[in-house]
Structures are given as C-alpha cells and as structure tokens.
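Aim 2, interim progress: modelling of the glutamic acid-bound target.
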Amino acid sequence: MNTQARLSLNLVQLETWVEAAKSRSDQGSLPTYIPQLAMVSPKAFAVQVLDCQGNCYLLGNADLRFSLMSVVKPFLLLYMLVELGADRIFAQVGMEPSDYPFNSLEQLQADGGWPRNPMINSGAIALSALLPGPDGQTRCQVLSDWLNHWGGCSLQLDYDTLNSVRSAPNSRNDAITTELYHRGTISDAIAAIDAYNHICCLSATVEDLAKLGMLLLQPPQPSWIEPCRQVKALMMTCGLYEASSRFAVQVGVPTKSGVSGVMLSVIPGWGAIACYSPPLDDTGNSVAGLFLIQEIVRSLNLSIFN
Ligand code: GLU
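Predicted structure of the complex, ligand included:
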C-alpha cells in the first residue's frame, strides 16, 4: 500500500524541472556510431506527460520526430507476448538483468547464445527473428501497424536513419546476430538483424510515445494484463542497461531509454512520461531525460516502491 500520497503534476513545476534538465544536457554527448544521430541538435527537446485521468502536459517541440531505437524493445516484447505467449517468448530470451552494456557480445557468449533479456540488443534481435514476414521491411510494417492500431499513434519508418544505420555497419550487432545463429537461437540471421534495424528506426513524436506508454498502463483487453505487467517488470529491471538497478533504487519507476536520446517511464495508476533530449551519459541514457524523470517522480511521490 502506498503510504505517501501521489501528487498531480502542474505545468509551472514541470517548466521549472524542464529548464533544470535542459541546462544539464551539455554534460552529455551525442552518439557517433549512427551518423544520423550525431547530426541532430543537442538542444532539441520535447516532453509529454499523459496521466490516467486523461490530462496531457506538453513542453518543447511537439512536432519533433525521433527514432525510437531501443525504446521500441518493450513494444516488440509486448507484441510477442500478446501474439505468441509467454512460454514461447521466454524460451527465446531470458528475464535476467545484465551488468554489461546494451550491445555486449561477451554477455551473450557467457550465456551460451541465449540472450539475458529482451531489453538488450541480443534479446531484441532474437525476438525480431520471430516477427512474421520475409524481410525487415515487412516485419517492421507488421509491428508498426499493430502498435499504431492499438496505441492510436502514428509510428513511421525513418528512412534517413535506416540508411544511416546501414551506411555504418555495426560490427557488434552483426557479431551478436552471428552468435545467435550459430548457437541455434535464430534460424534466419539476415532477416532478424534487418528487422531489428528497421524497428529501431521507427520514428515517433513524444505524443506517440506517451500513448504507447499508456497502452502498458491501460491494457485494451483482459488478455493483455499479464503481458503488460511482464513488460513493465522488465523495463524496471533491465530498461536502462547497467544503470537499471541504481535507477530503481533512486527513482523507482519502469523506464526504457534509447540511444537517440528518448526515454519513456510508465507509472502504474498515474501515467506515462515521454521525453526526448539527445545528449547521452556514459551508459547511453539521456542526461536531461534521466534528470527530468527523477525530478517528477521524487517531487510527486510516484516511485512504485513508496
Ligand atoms: N539500434 C541501436 C543499436 O543497436 C539501439 C541501441 C539503443 O537504443 O540503446 O545500437
């Protein structure tokens, strides 16, 4: 039972926290391994908070589109759990946190080719192998149609970012995919990595992302309740890579980050926070996004452990 009352947001407070968060973003840096992500403005910023009463708070550039990158992973997992069931999916990937970075080959090798969890690259590539369709484009379309339908959002494939990903071959993701193939975890390596690259390049606004977050909080059908619970649990334990445990202790809400600078927190019974600010810290999480979510959650007593 919550012993501290949760508070509602007000826009003046949010503005103050946003200004403080933005001023910290120059402590981070843009990722360089995907050229398109290095070309964005480090000052770009947007946040949308949707609460369970239907209130919406938006600051920054509402029209800004950004690639989801790893923030697509909880929603790939949701699709898989709803469509294929937990037994099949947790035979393909584990549910253990990892102390290694998001793109670690060493972790996968140590685990015999069985990905630790669906929030790191190996896990998401292994799940991308289960999307239906002959190629990455078709598989990505299946996932985005499904999410757009259920989430009421408008995800679109960002071809510039996809071309950029393809222009700079990612040897770690390629090695992870090869390892998954040789260990028998996936059977079609080319389609799996192609699908993974496509879905990471789905673009969204903060409104789209907040709506996707609400899908995890307000499952549209009774059969989704358990999948949504499992996705939120994995966001909490694995969503911020090696920083997940620290964030759970210090902040305490299920959260997923992406290397584009996007962050999504979902707070059961309260609402969703979707934020975009590109400069990242050493673990690949948005500096401003982390700070802003921390301020909102602490100030309004929103930790799920309160
Ligand atoms: N597509 C990115 C990669 O594989 C996603 C990583 C991330 O967002 O953390 O490197």
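The first helix runs from residue 11 to 24. Residues 3-67+204-299 form a domain with the Beta-lactamase fold (CATH 3.40.710.10).
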